[in-house]
């Protein structure tokens, strides 16, 4: 038996870097719950009955066993429309993670690709200024001693989808010291001048 209830799939949203969707079961004033085939435990789907509305949240970071057909079921064994859900289709892509501040030349720097989905493909690709520089199972791109030539735009690719580009700036390791050198010289000259004046006054 089919009722006036319906199962709707909300838009893809983001929380804590993960993509997720809400499945909402709405019907008349009766008790409903969201069901799934193949049947298995879905962490963010409550198996309890809810009056009038039942909500189920699916994260793309979750297990691919969450893929399947979902529908609403009432206590009186009435059913809504069925919706086929494939988490991979909801995936909006990875994020390139880069330090917000300029990195210091000659230091160790690690960039990463936040996949935002359970890893089921072995390959993660990194690009520097649109040129492929690493393509393997690693989710990090490491520089033992970063140089000025490493400065530029970075992005990563996973499961056929690319992240937005991020820019990494590299600053000279001696920049701050060299810029402060004239200031230190002025201070030292001022101290020397004061000492000379004090000695001349005591004579």
TrEMBL record:
Pfam entry (one): Ig_2
Biological process, per Gene Ontology: cell surface receptor signaling pathway; immune response
InterPro entries: Ig-like_dom, Ig-like_dom_sf, Ig-like_fold, Ig_Fc_receptor
GO molecular function: transmembrane signaling receptor activity
Keywords: Disulfide bond, Signal
GO cellular component, one term: external side of plasma membrane
Domain called Ig-like: residue spans: 94-169
UniProt keyword Signal, yes or no: yes
Record-given protein name: Uncharacterized protein LOC102205532
Organism of origin: Pundamilia nyererei
This protein's encoding gene: LOC102205532
């Amino acid at each position: 038996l089919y009722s006036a209830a319906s199962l709707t799939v909300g838009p893809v949203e983001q929380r804590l870097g993960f993509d997720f969707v809400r499945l909402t079961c709405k019907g008349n004033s009766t008790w409903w719950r969201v069901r799934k085939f193949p049947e298995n435990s879905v962490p963010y789907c409550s198996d309890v009955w809810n009056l009038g509305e039942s909500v189920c949240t699916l994260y793309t970071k979750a297990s691919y066993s969450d893929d399947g057909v979902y529908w609403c079921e009432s206590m009186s064994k009435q059913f809504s429309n069925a919706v086929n859900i494939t988490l991979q289709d909801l995936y909006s892509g990875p994020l390139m993670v880069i330090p917000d501040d300029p990195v210091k030349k000659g230091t160790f720097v690690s960039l990463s690709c936040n996949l935002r989905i359970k890893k089921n493909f072995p390959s993660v690709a990194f690009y520097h200024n649109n040129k492929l520089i690493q393509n393997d199972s690693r989710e990090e791109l490491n520089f033992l001693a970063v140089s000025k030539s490493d400065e530029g735009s970075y992005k990563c690719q996973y499961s056929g989808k690319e992240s937005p580009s991020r820019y990494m700036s590299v600053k000279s390791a001696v920049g701050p010291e060299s810029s402060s050198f004239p200031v230190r010289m002025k201070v030292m000259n001022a101290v020397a001048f004061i000492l000379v004046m004090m000695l001349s006054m005591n004579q």
